[in-house]
Amino acid sequence: MPAWHASILTLYPDMFPGPLGLSLSGRALESGLWQCDTVNIRGFAADRHRTVDDTPAGGGAGMVLRADVLASAIDAAAPDNDTRPRLMMSPRGRPLTQRRVRELVAGPGVVLVCGRFEGVDQRVIDGRGLEEVSIGDYVLSGGEVAAMAVLDACIRLIPGVMGTQASGEDESFENGLLEYPHYTRPALWEGTAIPEVLTSGDHAAVARWRHDQALRLTRERRPDLLTDDDATGRTS
Ligand code: SAM
């Protein structure tokens, strides 16, 4: 099977693979479980100054990435017969969910477009069918860090990347709940002991305790998850 394939369109190709070249994702990259290439958007500028941006129509602050330049870069990176989803990093996009991450991992890979400046010309978003994706309700200076977050979330779920022990099934969002708290040695630390049930050896009691804790944390911090089956991919 061909490796899961990420193509990243950016004005800063040297940022990749960056942190994704280390640790779990770095080892997976080295062993060919995923592959990544970058496309420098500036390489598709048509004038001798290599201009990629221009002033916003209608006035206002900042600059906007030109539709013609970005479209040429997308067409070169992902021709019509490329079935990979094309994601545009954008604070006004749909928030990325664990469900969407699992869908992306099940496919052949992704094409990620990193915005800069005030954003990109709307016509290229519409014309090239870009899915706008946000990694949170805050504004980054560019889409590269957002693209790395998307990739990191996907790569760890590629079969073979995590050991069999850590399948990720118990983690936050996977069952509609945040994860329960963890403890390890020492048994007593700064006067606080590990909850007794976790050292009792009673597996059913441990499972009950963990579920109760997960429910408590979710109610406190993310009550929206308890009603949002779509975000979590929960089916029951
Ligand atoms: N003017 C835009 C707005 O208010 O929505 C913000 C542009 S931001 C300075 C530049 C680029 O960073 C965006 O085009 C996008 O690619 C990326 N970006 C910023 N925040 C992001 C977020 N929360 N999620 C995903 N991408 C983001």
Q: How many helices?
A: 7
Distance between the termini: 32 Å
Strand order of the largest sheet: 2-1-6-5-7
Total number of beta strands:
9
Task: Summarize the main sheet.
Answer: 5 strands, parallel
- CA-atom Rg in angstroms: 21 Å
In the CATH hierarchy, what is the class of the largest domain?
Alpha Beta
Work out the strand percent: 15-25%
Number of domains: 2
Low-confidence stretches: none
Average pLDDT number: 94
**CATH architectural category of the largest domain:** 3-Layer(aba) Sandwich
Shape: elongated
Ligands bound, unique? S-adenosylmethionine
CATH superfamily of the largest domain: SPOUT methyltransferase, trefoil knot domain
Q: Which class best fits the helix and strand makeup? A: alpha/beta
State the helical fraction: 25-40%
Defining key terms:
7 helices, 2 domains, two-stranded antiparallel sheet, 30% helix, 9 strands, binds S-adenosylmethionine
What does the model show?
By secondary structure, the chain is α/β, with parallel strands linked by helices. It has two domains: 4-155, 3-Layer(aba) Sandwich (Alpha/beta knot); 170-232, Trp Operon Repressor, Chain A (Orthogonal Bundle), CATH 1.10.1270.20. The protein has helices at residues 23-30, 67-77, 98-106, 122-127, 143-155, 203-221, 229-232, and strands spanning 4-10, 34-40, 53-54, 64-65, 86-95, 109-113, 131-134, 188-189, 192-193. S-adenosylmethionine (SAM) is lined by residues 89-92, 114-116, 118-119, 134-136, 138-143, 146.
